[in-house]
Design a protein that fits this description.
Layout (H helix, E strand, L loop, with lengths): L2 H9 L3 H32 L11 H10 L4 H51 L2 H6 L2 H42 L1 H17 L1 H30 L1 H6 L3 H51 L4 H46 L20 E10 L6 E11 L3 E6 L5 H7 L8 E6 L2 E2 L5 H6 L1 E4 L10 H6 L7 H10 L3 H6 L17 H15 L3 E5 L7 H15 L3 E5 L11 E6 L2 E6 L1 H7 L2 H12 L5
Helix pairs in contact: 1-11, 2-4, 2-6, 2-11, 4-6, 6-7, 6-8, 6-11, 7-10, 8-10, 8-11, 10-11, 15-17, 17-18, 19-20
Length: 600
């Protein structure tokens, strides 16, 4: 879809406001034109000059004759009043037009932002893996902001265009010959603006690209600030980003110097047109200049008022061209066809009855060739625990991610009570699962709100109960403000073990049907591990649980242990059975036993 069609598509959703904007714009232009047209005859009349309206447009003569009844001085005072009234009406309608056009452009921007937000919430994980967060923030912030300006400019252009058309109509009614020449001359001026417009687009592209680079770089540094500081990379990062700041401002400056040229260039060209019209008028109307002076003056005044509007239009064209690359970015961003979306399913999930079956699962990450899961067959009966072990990169987290449908397998199926996972309505399915993932996420909010995120209607008692069962209550109440303590970005104020226990409490609070725990006990000291371990046991008791742990000590009591090796299930059994088999599990176990005797 072309960027302009995107704007049009959004605009057409607000037909009433488009109609009002056009109607007020048109009436404002009409009052403006009529009052302008009356000024010269009235001023001449008031000064006692002869007002000759032969050759004047019928509408002007009509207005004049209808007001001419009173005759003499009073006639012109009447007309003065009429002009004032027309100017008043012009200003009232212009004001209303500003209000409606502003409301219109704001509504369009709101619509676009909301559509972008909805898209970000709907799109699959895969999109986020391929797109940098800084780029997204730039699109949803800066680029949508530029698109907003483009919309305002487009609406303004629409209003200005209406005014110019009305004025051209008035000019035509005064003298079609002169207007023909004016139009040709002004068209030449506008065409010669093509040069500026092209440059504006080029600089706009530069600005859009540099803004994206800048956003991406800043966000990367902020997310990795610990690494930046730990490696003393501040000067390097400063240089990198300072360079981007310079490049961005240069692009912005270039586009401003370009557009700053348009107004003076157009004013000069406009004046040249007026002079040309004057000279041509003399040639055209040689001999009748005396009688035509009122009409000619009126023509020139109307033209004079119209010229800045033509200038404005040319300027707006270049501003619009400058913003076009941003509109293109937003258009591409809002397109749904080029983004991954998951089928949502329609059967409401109402609880597990028998168990979960993984059937000949195959998986490769989108856009990658390497097969991460290969012919995985597993059976997880209701109310039992299945543990996944295996070396790093074996595919454990990937397998766990398929259960809440963060990804879909490329072949094979996951069945819940003999029904394909894909048939379930995706939100109700996910809401029935508690997930404690490898990297616990916490919001920069209070402990209480972080816990209640999984269940918004949870009472204080339920929250405290969940915290107690997750072995988190003790440390929470020791925090400066207890449950109301703010825990910083991603929970930086807490230790790794504390964060994990909060994540477990959050999952507990939800009382999920199915539980997915990914390596919840890695990188912890013995005491923390015991606490977390206790919390996990509490959480997984009598619950259907898929657990991944590097420390084999934590899964010894699991009903089944599946050993994954390079995406394949190579062994399945209980701890004792697998040890007796003397295979990969026994090997992993003896390695850990010799490395970390204290944890076994
Ligand atoms: N988003 C991704 N895109 C492409 N490949 C990925 C992605 N995530 C993981 N992989 C690859 O898939 C393979 C399995 O990764 P996975 O995270 O499932 O391993 P794991 O068994 O959980 O390892 P660990 O024990 O280290 O957590 C790895 O080779 C990894 O490089
Ligand atoms: Mg993992």
């Amino acid at each position: 879809m072309s960027p302009n069609r995107l704007l049009l598509q959004f605009a057409l959703r607000r037909p009433l406001w488009i109609g009002l904007t056009i109607a007020f714009g048109f009436s404002g232009a009409l009052f403006n034109g009529v009052s302008t047209m009356l000024i010269i005859p009235v001023v001449l009349g008031l000064l006692g000059e002869e007002v000759n309206l032969s050759g004047a447009p019928p509408i002007l003569r009509k207005v004049f004759s209808s007001l001419a009844q009173s005759g003499g001085e009073a006639q012109f005072l009447w007309m003065m009043g009429f002009i004032l009234l027309a100017i008043l009406l012009k200003n009232v309608t212009s004001y209303l037009s500003t209000l409606t056009s502003s409301y219109l452009s704001r509504s369009l921007v709101k619509d676009i932002r909301k559509e972008g937000l909805q898209l970000l919430l709907d799109v699959d994980f895969d999109f986020y893996i391929k797109t940098k967060a800084g780029d997204l923030i730039n699109r949803l912030g800066g680029e949508v902001g530029s698109t907003a300006t483009a919309i305002r400019v487009a609406v303004l252009m629409l209003c200005t265009m209406i005014t110019v058309l009305v004025f051209t109509g008035i000019l035509l009614s005064i003298s079609w010959q002169l207007t023909l020449i004016t139009t040709v001359l002004l068209a030449i001026v506008s065409l010669s603006n093509g040069f500026f417009v092209k440059r504006a687009k080029h600089f706009g592209q530069q600005l859009s690209d540099r803004s994206r680079d800048y956003s991406v770089a800043v966000l990367e540094v902020l997310t990795g600030i610990r690494l930046v500081k730990a490696t003393g990379s501040e000067p390097y990062e400063y240089q990198q980003i300072a360079h981007l700041i310079d490049a961005r401002e240069k692009a912005d400056y270039d586009s401003q110097t370009n557009s700053a040229l348009i107004t003076p260039a157009n004013e000069m060209a406009g004046l040249t047109v007026v002079v040309a019209i004057l000279l041509l008028g003399r040639v055209f109307f040689r001999g009748q200049l005396e009688s035509l002076s009122t009409v000619l003056l009126t023509y020139l005044l109307v033209l004079f008022r119209m010229l800045p509007l033509v200038g404005q239009l040319n300027n707006a064209r270049s501003v619009f061209a400058n913003l076009a690359p941003s509109v293109a970015v937003v258009t591409d961003f809002l397109r749904r066809e080029n983004k991954p979306f998951m089928s949502k399913g329609h059967v409401p999930y109402s609880g597990l009855r028998e168990g979960i079956r993984f059937e000949k699962l195959e998986f490769t990450y989108p856009g990658h060739d390497r097969q991460v899961l290969n012919q995985v067959d597993l059976w997880l009966p209701k109310g039992t625990t299945l543990a996944l072990v295996g070396s790093s990169g074996a595919g454990k987290s990937t397998l766990a991610d398929l259960l809440p449908r963060f990804y879909d397998p490329i072949a094979g199926r996951i069945l819940i009570d003999d029904r394909d996972l894909k048939e379930f309505e995706i939100r109700s399915l996910r809401q029935s699962m508690g997930i404690v993932s490898q990297d616990t996420f916490l919001f920069n909010d209070s402990v209480r709100n972080n816990l209640a995120y999984a269940r918004r209607d949870a009472t204080d008692d339920q929250i405290i109960e969940a915290a107690k069962r997750a072995n988190a209550y003790e440390f929470i109440v020791k925090l400066p403000e207890g449950f109301e303590t703010l825990i910083g970005d991603r929970g930086v104020m807490l230790s790794g073990g504390q964060r994990q226990r909060l994540a477990i409490a959050r999952a507990l609070l939800r009382d999920p049907d199915i539980l997915i725990l990914d390596e919840a006990t890695s990188a912890l000291d013995t005491v923390s591990e015991r606490l977390v371990q206790g919390a996990i046991e509490e959480l997984s008791r009598d619950r259907t649980t898929l657990v991944i742990a590097h420390r084999l000590s934590t899964i010894q009591s699991a009903d089944q242990i599946a050993v994954l090796d390079q995406g394949r299930v190579v062994e399945v059994g209980t701890h004792t059975e697998l040890l007796r088999q003397g295979g990969l599990y026994a090997q992993l176990h003896s390695m850990q036993f010799s490395e970390e005797p204290q944890t076994v």
